[in-house]
Amino acid sequence: MLEGKVALITGASRGLGRALALAYAKEGAKLAMAARSEGSLGPVAEEAEATGAEVLAVTADVASEADVARLVEAAVERFGKIDVLVNNAGLLGPRVKIEEYPEDEWRRVIDANLTAPFLLSKAAIPHMPEGASIVNVVSGVSVEGRAEWGAYSVSKFGVEGLTQILAAELRDRGIRANAVDPGSMRTEMRAAAYPEEDPQTRITPEENTAVFLYLASDESRDVTGQRFKAQEFQR
């Protein structure tokens, strides 16, 4: 499905990012994988390589312009292009009311969840050929503000807007941009947000990759500016 494609995935060391990296690798994509921790990224890169995929693992803080430039430059130097950009990396931040929200945490979450997709898209677009795809990960709280979701919700609202702007600006170049709400999954972030919840009641990220594979493939070549709910996706 993804033979010959080069995919850059952020937040690839765990959760949904790890699941997508392995799913893309199994479908024949070449991978540029990024995460903040080399210790957690390395084992995932090895798993992906075990499928036969060509893998570049880069430790980077994607909220840093310098790190993003280094990441994209390394991917292009290794693979020559970027066909798929998955902006997955993100932070939950504190679950408190706005009046109690620490300013430094606010800025950290906004940078990780919104500034990073902006920086990555900006850096990657010049190296994306016609038919390329940007996939931005959003959330149920990016279309409905809820109490005590603070900067996470606000940042994801911003990613919804960024996706629409990218779709409009890149349509004539044949590059598409879409947003995906993965829904609730059995991840560390979900457990932190809902500590009282039984994680076994949620699907695993590995069970939730179908729409991401579709948006990375040529099957979705004419689909742009759309918002998908991953767990409701049907071809």
UniProtKB/TrEMBL annotation:
What Pfam families does this protein's entry cite?
adh_short
Q: Which UniProt keywords apply?
A: Oxidoreductase
Q: Which GO terms describe its molecular function?
A: oxidoreductase activity, acting on the CH-OH group of donors, NAD or NADP as acceptor
The UniProt entry, under InterPro entries, shows:
NAD(P)-bd_dom_sf, Sc_DH/Rdtase_CS, SDR_fam
Tell me which PANTHER family the record gives.
CLAVALDEHYDE DEHYDROGENASE, SHORT-CHAIN DEHYDROGENASES/REDUCTASES FAMILY MEMBER
Q: Which family does it belong to?
A: Belongs to the short-chain dehydrogenases/reductases (SDR) family.
Task: Please give the name of this protein.
Answer: SDR family NAD(P)-dependent oxidoreductase
The organism of origin for this protein:
Rubrobacter marinus
